[in-house]
Design brief:
By secondary structure, the chain is α/β, with parallel strands linked by helices. The protein contains 21 helices and ten strands. The strands form two sheets. It has a six-stranded mixed β-sheet with strand order 6-7-8-3-9-10, with helices on both faces. Strands 2-1-4-5 form a four-stranded antiparallel β-sheet, covered by helices on one side. The protein binds adenosine-5'-triphosphate and magnesium ion. Adenosine-5'-triphosphate binds next to strand 2 and helix 12. Magnesium ion binds next to helix 12.
Amino acid sequence: MPSGKLKKTSKKLKEDPYLVIKWYWTNYFKKYWPILVIGIFFMSLEGSMLGLLSYSIKSMFDKVFIPSNQSALISVGFIIFLIFFLRSCAGLIQRLIVTWVGQKVEKSLQQKLLEKLINLGLPFYDKTSPGVLIERMRVDTRLITSSAGSIFMTLVKDGIALVSLITVALYVDWKWTVIAFIGAPILVIPIFLLQKWIRKISGENRNIEADLSISLDEIFHGISILKLYSLQTYRLNSFKKLLEKVRKIKLKIEGGVASTPALIDFIAGIGFLGVMIFGGAQIVSGEKSIGDFMAFFTAMALIFEPLRRLSNVAGNFQVMLASADKVHELFMVQSPLPATNGLKYINKKINFLGDINFENVSLIKGNKKILDDITFSIPSGQLVALVGKSGAGKSSILKLITGILIPTRGKIFIDGVDISCIEPNELRSNISIIIQENQLFDETIYENIKIGKLDATKTEILNACDISYVKEFSDNMPKKLYTKVGPRGSNLSGGQRQRVNIARALVRNCPILLLDEPTTALDSKSEELLQKAFKKASLKKTTIYISHKISNIKNANKIVVIDKGKVVEEGIHKNLINNKKLYYDLYNLQQIEGKVN
Ligand SMILES: Nc1ncnc2c1ncn2[C@@H]1O[C@H](COP(=O)(O)OP(=O)(O)OP(=O)(O)O)[C@@H](O)[C@H]1O
Ligand SMILES: [Mg+2]
């Protein structure tokens, strides 16, 4: 099973942005290279039009205005119109291309990430909050593609614009150009340090944003508890604190990102001043034409927008990298390891009878022994109850049978087959499980039952509804079986939810039925009804029933008493009572409680 640990390589990649980017390129962007090349063509076209525009200014002054040449006016004007027209068409096409690729990649990133996450084992989910995962799935993947798109566009389009404008400037006068850029080298070190800092705080920002999602997830999932304990103000305040943190950190990021163009503007001002003094004198002396001067200054004025955007690229790249790193980290979480200890999965459909055997099974988590040398057996078709104090290890035993947990030592056999040799999905196709927690999706009652067996016929589902007493309440609902159960089954009562679960287990019709405290927190009338339904559902099935209430399980074929991870007693109710050990104590305690209540 998955350990949920990050691979060593991912740690290495985390430190190397180049490898992370390469990973995204190879897996998600590379296949679109032909269309990206077309995009580059149109970006280059759009960018180069700025150079042409500034150069056409020279002709405008030297050929039209200064010699007062009316006839050239139309042709120069037309050339300028053509430049703008080409620029607008190229701009539209390249933007469409970038958006198209971006959306394709975003979709595939989200799809692949969910595919990856959905197959990770529960230990991973024990450590990672759903809020974080939703944030990574929805926000980070979008940030990656949108930033990648705008960075790509800026690099190509503005890069080409910059080159074409500098070419015009150099062509007009290389000395003026050198003077204009004389201050640029001073910027290298501050910009480098700034980028490092932006990357660091962007990473922090992504973490706090994930905390915000966790907080929202907890608020909306726990809304009833929150109201019952009047925690609205408390939760609102902690949310406000997080929002304030995000606000401050975002301000820092924006400040950081905007600092680079600000630095460039400052250096540009110095350059301009130099050119004005040096170049202006050359114009006055007649050494250079007004057309030269205008073309140069247009080029310089036009350079600053692309240059500002290009200088932002490094900052935006760091912001993108923060998200890219986090999503990549999730992709690198180890996939479920085959728990076969070198053995291969049995490669065939298995239809169990449901004979279950635990042989010296121990389960250790960290340095805690959850189960200690458990050995017991359940013949097929029998009902076995697990009884014990809270935390004794009962639920863990069920998780071992379903393969959600893997024994640290020992083996579990079903019909003599070691379950570690059975592919987990194949194993689970033989098991129905009903637990206390919600197991319903926000679909109709009918669809929730059908989940048990996707190809179940309507007759099968209706039959199951009859046996499990679902019909009894669904008939009174507005759309009967086609009524939506609400988020996490909130439109149904606890007992009704469990009846839907029993109906699901019935259509599933598996040889093994596991029940983990399915009637806890229900009133005695609902419990009674459910007991009847369980009885029908467990007919001819190997059933393991965990119940804190001995009256529910006293007719079981066998009762296994668990204490501190060990089997301490085993037998039928009568014998266990006669033993006068833990079972007897638990029973007596409940008798007294029953009388008191
Ligand atoms: N994911 C986990 N990581 C670490 N320890 C765990 C984990 N899940 C359960 N445990 C520990 O394992 C022990 C047994 O838990 P388990 O849920 O099997 O008890 P239980 O008998 O079902 O209790 P209850 O009657 O309260 O449901 C507990 O002490 C619990 O703290
Ligand atoms: Mg339990």
